[in-house]
Specification:
Elements (H helix, E strand, L loop, with lengths): L11 E4 L4 E3 L7 E6 L6 H12 L1 H6 L2 E7 L3 H11 L4 E4 L4 H5 L3 E6 L2 E6 L2 E5 L5 E5 L7 H10 L1
Parallel strand pairs: 3-4, 4-5
Antiparallel strand pairs: 1-2, 1-5, 3-8, 6-7, 8-9
Length: 152
């Protein structure tokens, strides 16, 4: 996983709005880049809804939120509409960006091992440097942890 002090690798992914989103287009703003396993599953919904509920504070801190998962754009649109999510969800079906950030790895559930997204978040400053990395995030209070970093 990428460490704090590292320049965040640039990427372009398909967004839920039918447009492509490029990380470097957000230079001059802080970015909360969070990777999550799957749309509309319990932990991912908790995490997304907490970011939604705290979004005005995120914006007030001069930041935007970008969520990334392997789900396709159609799934993202459905998830976003169902829970009124105010931020972009990006589709990384080949997990290319997840691999760049070191958050694609081996997971275990119900006795089986498989590859997937390791729920992680990166707070990126206005110049594109990772100022905080959260590995293996617990979704319940995570948006509050991120706000503490943003509000410094």
């Amino acid at each position: 996983m990428l460490q704090e002090g590292t320049v965040a690798p640039d990427f372009t992914l398909a967004g839920d709005g039918g447009t492509e989103v490029t990380l470097s287009n957000y230079r001059g703003r802080k970015v909360v880049l969070y990777f999550y396993p799957k749309d509309d599953t319990p932990g991912c919904t908790t995490e997304a809804c907490n970011f939604r509920d705290d979004y005005s504070q995120v914006l007030a801190a001069g930041a935007v939120v970008l969520g990334v998962s392997p789900d396709n754009v159609k799934s993202h649109v459905k998830f976003k509409l169902k829970f009124s999510l105010p931020f972009a969800l990006l589709s990384d079906p080949e997990h290319r960006v997840a691999e760049l950030y070191g958050v694609w790895g081996e997971k275990k559930m119900y006795g089986r091992t498989y590859m997937g997204i390791i729920r992680s978040t990166f707070v990126i400053d206005e110049e594109g440097t990772i100022i905080k990395a959260f590995p293996k995030v617990s979704p319940k209070n995570h948006s509050q942890e991120v706000l503490e970093v943003l509000e410094g």
